[in-house]
């Protein structure tokens, strides 16, 4: 039985992916353009598990 969003495999996978994106984003070049792209990639990666959690909250 699902008690919360953390029990969902899809959320767990998205959360792990977001952590990997954050970890590997440190390899971006140190330019203004790369910094902008890096920030957007991180925001996008974090939004996936967040949106899954929000959707499940409203579905229960």
Give a short summary of the structure.
The chain has 60 residues and is mainly α. The chain has helices at 9-24, 32-59.
Describe what you observe in this structure:
There is one protein chain. Helices cover 73% and strands 0% of the residues. By secondary structure, it is mostly helical. The chain is elongated and about 45 Å long. It starts with 8 loop residues before the first helix and ends with a helix. The model has no long low-confidence stretch (mean pLDDT 92).
Task: Characterize the biggest β-sheet.
Answer: none
Helical content class: over 70%
- Strand content range: under 5%
Q: What's the helix-strand series?
A: HH
Tally of extended strands?
A: 0
Low-confidence segments, given as residue ranges, are: none
Number of domains: 1
Alpha plus pi helix count: 2
Mean pLDDT figure: 92
Question: In angstroms, what is the radius of gyration?
Answer: 14 Å
What structural category do the secondary elements indicate? mainly alpha
* End-to-end distance: 12 Å
Net shape? elongated
């Amino acid at each position: 039985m699902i008690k919360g969003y953390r029990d969902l495999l899809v959320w767990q996978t998205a959360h792990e992916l977001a952590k990997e994106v954050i970890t590997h984003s440190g390899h971006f070049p140190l330019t203004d353009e790369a910094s902008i792209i890096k920030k957007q990639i991180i925001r996008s990666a974090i939004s996936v598990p967040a949106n899954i959690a929000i959707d499940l909250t409203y579905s229960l």
